[in-house]
Specification:
The chain is built from twelve helices and no strands. The chain is mostly helical.
């Protein structure tokens, strides 16, 4: 299918679904009601990337694209803007933010490129950006928002020079959390746990590890191993509540060993 014609067909399909005689569910959706689906589709794209399944990624990217089309058609109906407007703004932004590609600007390093990108963004936003930390949506997942905040602070020089003091900060925050465990002060424990998580996010930045990705992959491993425990016990006619912790731990270690063997084969 021709890409341009395929996109036009998608727009027409969405308009048809929203029109009288179309789909009642699609017709009643608003920008607000669709917010949850935009988030869900975004995370399903991330899951597809983690799975390394090109088939799954192809499908999930389509579902994510549909959300942009859905919002654009709703805006079109209200006379606010069209998909053509969205694409024009995007193309203009890409050209404006890449003067080293589409103009004569010379950049020597990636750091120079990023710094110039930030200057352009700040100029686009004008006086709205009153802080070096402005422009980070509060709706972002907390780990991702923490990462972006530390990145922005680093760009203006508020940062350590190397990873050693960052790791020391993690140990310091862990110690402070430990000291609160027996105080019974829930508010203080929450604050210290937050400080520890923030320090770990900063460590991830120094190690070039995205904390959101790292935690998501850890959760996936936990779920996979737990399923192995459940299935192994079920095969023996034993339920989770009947199994001892020792049995579950042993099966958990079996799952970890199987993961290592599979990774070694790969």
């Amino acid at each position: 299918m021709d890409t341009v014609h395929g996109f036009d067909r998608l727009m027409e399909l969405m308009r048809r679904l929203r029109a009288p005689g179309g789909c009642p569910w699609d017709a009643e959706q608003t920008h607000e009601s669709l917010k949850r689906y935009l988030l869900e589709e975004t995370y399903e794209v991330l899951e597809a990337i983690d799975s390394k399944s090109t088939k799954m990624l192809k499908e999930e990217l389509g579902d994510l694209l549909l959300q942009s089309v859905f919002h654009s058609v709703i805006a079109e109906e209200h006379g606010e803007f069209t998909m053509d407007d969205v694409l024009q703004v995007l193309c203009d932004k890409l050209i404006r933010r890449h003067p080293h590609v589409f103009a004569d600007l010379k950049v020597d390093t990636i750091d120079d490129l990023v710094a110039n990108w930030e200057r352009i963004k700040k100029g686009e936003k004008g006086e709205e950006r009153l802080s070096a930390l402005s422009g980070i949506p509060p709706q972002l997942p907390a780990l991702l928002r923490a990462q972006k905040i530390t990145e922005k602070a680093s760009r203006v020089g508020f940062d350590w020079d190397h990873v050693d003091p960052v790791f020391a900060k993690v140990l310091e925050e862990l110690k402070e959390l430990e000291e609160t465990l027996f105080t019974g002060d829930q508010e203080r424990m929450e604050a210290e746990l937050g400080d520890l998580l923030f320090a770990i996010v900063n460590l991830g930045r120094f190690l070039s590890i995205n904390p959101e990705d790292a935690l998501r992959k850890t959760i996936a491993r936990f779920v996979s191993r737990f399923h192995h425990v459940e299935e192994s016990l079920h095969a023996k006619g034993v339920t989770l509540t009947e199994a001892s912790l020792e049995q579950m731990d042993s099966l958990w270690e079996d799952a970890k060993k199987a993961e290592r063997n599979e990774k070694a084969k790969g």
